[in-house]
Each structure stands twice: as C-alpha cells, then as structure tokens.
From TrEMBL:
Organism per entry: Paraburkholderia graminis (strain ATCC 700544 / DSM 17151 / LMG 18924 / NCIMB 13744 / C4D1M)
Primary localization: membrane
CDD domains found in the cross-reference section: MFS_NepI_like
Lineage, broadest ranks: Bacteria, Pseudomonadati, Pseudomonadota, Betaproteobacteria, Burkholderiales
InterPro entries recorded: MFS, MFS_dom, MFS_Efflux_Transporters, MFS_trans_sf
Name of the protein: Major facilitator superfamily MFS_1
Length: 395
C-alpha cells in the first residue's frame, strides 16, 4: 500500500481534489446523521410515533455503524477503495430518499440503519484512504481538511435544518440533501484514483485482534473515555443553557452556532500543532475540555460567560478527532483500515454510553451531575494517555 506510487500516478491537484471530495462526504454524513435532531418533533408527529420512538430511530444508526466499522475492512478487502467509498455514498443517497419518503416508523428505522452502514464504513476507511492519497508529512494537514467538512456540518446542519423544516417541511429538508449527495458521489468517482488493496496488507485483519497490541488497547481505552465524556456533556447542552443560562430559542441557537463555528479554529489549530505535539495534545485536550466544562457550572448563569465558554468548548472538542486520527496514521500504520474500524466502533459505543449515562444522571440528579461525570471521564482519559509512552508502538 504505497503512498509514493499513488502520488506518482496522479497529480498534486487531483490528490487534494480527492481530499476535498472526502471532506464534502464527511460533511454530508454529519448533516444526514444529526439533522433529524432539530426535526425530531415534526418527524414524530407525522409518523404518529412518540418523540422517544423517533429518537430510537435516530440512534439506531450508531448500532449499525459499530457493526459495519468492525467488518468492513475484511468484507471489502479485495475491492478498489474508490468503488467502496462511492458505494457508501450511494447508500447515503438511498437512505436520504427513504427517509424523505418514509410513511411509517419501520421505514424510518430501515433508512437510518442504511445510514449507519455508511457512517461506519466511511469513517473506518477515511484515515487509511488519506494515508494513501498524500505523502506522510501531509497526512495531518489532509486530516485537518477532512475534519473541516465535519466542522462545517456541525456548525450549520442543526440551525439550517430547523429553519428549512419550518419553511419546506422535514421531508423537504432531506430532499434538499439528495442532489448535494448525488454531486458528491460523482466527485468521489472523478477525483479518487484507483486504490486496490490486497487482503494480506490490511483488509484480512480482524479489527478486534489489534487489541492484543498493548499500545492499541491503551489508545482505545483513552478514546472511549474521551468521547464518552465529551458526548455526555455535548448531548445535554440544551437543557444546561435553558436551566442555567435561562436562554430562549434564539439565544440558544446563537450559543450552539458559536460553538460549532469555533470548531474551525480548533481543527486548524490541531492541524498546525499536531506534527510535533501529538501526544501532548492527546493528553491536554481532554483536560482542557474538562476544565471548560467545570467552569460552566458556576459561570454559566451569565450569557456572556456562557457564550465565551461555549466557543472554547467547541474549539477544543473539534481538535480531538483530528488528534486521534493522526495517532491512528502513526500508531497502527501497518493496519490502518482495521485500526480505523476499531476506532470508529470505540467512538460510536462511547457516544451511546456517554449519552445514556448523562441522561440517567440528569433524570435522577441534575445537569450539574451530568457535567461533573463527563469531566471526570475526560480527566481519566488524560491519565490513561499520560506522557504518551503507552500509546507508542513497541519497537
């Protein structure tokens, strides 16, 4: 799996066009996955389901993402990665059409399951594909571009979805995404070079077998603690701002938009620092996120303070996936696709666990308990990372 041979076959312009196409695909995935959150009530009403049932239909994509991320490297081991990624984009397109046309709760569930397959497959292969497209020294920069697509969707999907939903209806919102994803599918086919993989190189490996490597086991533990802590807090920002800061819908939208826009700065900053400070960042970022989370509890009653802290939180949080993707490109260099699958499974599981834990604490105690628990998980992840020695592969 030689990056050098790939580079000699295609121009630098095509390489970065391919990276841009993948960034667009990442943005469409994030938008498709999280857009329903802002449309949950009308979806539930239209399909004659409870809001809780509609929420289950949304979360089912995470379960299918976990399963897909663990098996896709071996299932697609002999297939051209260009065709696999385009096929996953095609599944996303099909999912959006089915969601827009869903006339029953069951159809919505099936469509979300298809989207979960795309989410698990794309993110499992993304880092390995970037490693094959660009020279090793450009990998952090390319990953930064990829996660810029993530930041764009995180910033704008929810507010745009909420607004358009009131104008053209929730089905219209998903129909509006269909032509954009179709264009992205064509772009992937045009810009990505052929990338055939031999099973012996990576795809035949069992992702779970990588846990036998001590540095991978420690890394996955740190990943799960980091993302569980982050999403335990992130999932319940709305009730926090409503009860602590006492904001209405307009100010809440401003806070969430500011948090999302700050992700651009976090992504750029991580890309700039990560080359020489990777392990420092892996340890420092969750600590910084925990500190900001804890400061929110006493300071969150002021809108101005809450806004500044939300921006800081968004910037730090956006840097975390860039850092861990860069670790993957270095720590599991010989099995990047299997490693990517394992990381995606770990992240998706931790997101579900973090959201569930946060909700339980919120229901039985308070939003403060949710934030304290999330901060504790983030600090534990930093302890696991330590100096970074545990995360370095054995020589």
């Amino acid at each position: 799996m030689s990056t050098v041979s790939n580079q000699s076959a295609i121009s630098r312009r095509q390489v970065w066009s391919a990276v841009a196409s993948m960034a667009m695909c990442a943005a469409m995935l994030i938008a498709s996955e999280f857009m329903p959150v802002s449309l949950l009530t009308p979806i539930a009403s239209d399909l004659r389901a409870s809001v809780g049932m509609a929420g289950q239909a949304i979360s089912i994509s995470g379960l299918f993402a976990v399963a897909t991320s663990l098996i896709i490297p071996s299932v697609t081991s002999r297939l051209d990665r260009r065709h696999v990624l385009a096929g996953l984009a095609g599944l996303m397109l099909m999912s959006l059409v089915l969601i827009a046309e869903a006339r029953s709760f069951e159809m919505l569930m099936a469509a979300r399951a298809l989207l979960g397959v795309t989410v698990g497959g794309f993110w499992s292969l993304a880092t390995a594909t970037i490693m094959r497209l660009v020279p090793e020294e450009s990998v952090p920069k390319a990953l930064g571009v990829l996660y810029t697509g993530n930041a764009v969707a995180t910033s704008f999907a929810a507010p745009i979805g909420s607004y358009l939903g009131s104008v053209i209806g929730w089905r219209g919102v998903f129909w509006a995404l269909v032509p954009i994803v179709a264009i992205n599918l064509v772009m992937l086919l045009v810009t990505l070079p052929p990338m055939k993989t031999r099973a012996s190189q990576d795809g035949g490996a069992n992702a779970l077998a990588l846990l036998r490597r001590p540095h991978v086991s420690f890394a996955m533990l740190a990943v799960m603690l980091t993302f569980a802590g982050a999403f335990e807090v992130f999932t319940y920002f709305r009730p926090f701002f409503e009860t602590y800061t006492h904001v209405g819908v307009l100010r809440l939208s401003v806070l969430l938009l500011g948090m999302g826009l700050a992700g651009f700065a976090g992504t750029y900053g991580a890309s700039a620092l990560i080359g020489k400070r990777l392990f420092h960042l892996l340890m420092a970022l969750p600590v910084a996120l925990a500190v900001v989370t804890l400061i929110m509890l006493p300071a969150g009653h002021s809108f101005g303070a809450a806004a500044l802290l939300a921006i800081a939180w968004g910037a730090v949080n956006a840097a975390i996936p860039v850092a861990w993707s860069t670790w993957l490109s270095k720590g599991v260099k010989d099995k990047p696709e299997s490693g990517g699958g394992l990381m995606v499974a770990s992240i998706q599981l931790s997101i579900m666990v973090g959201a569930e834990l946060g909700g339980t604490l919120l229901d039985h105690y308070s939003i403060g308990a949710t934030f304290l628990s999330g901060a504790a998980l983030l600090v534990l992840s930093a302890i696991v990372v330590g100096s970074g020695r545990r995360l370095r592969p054995a020589v």
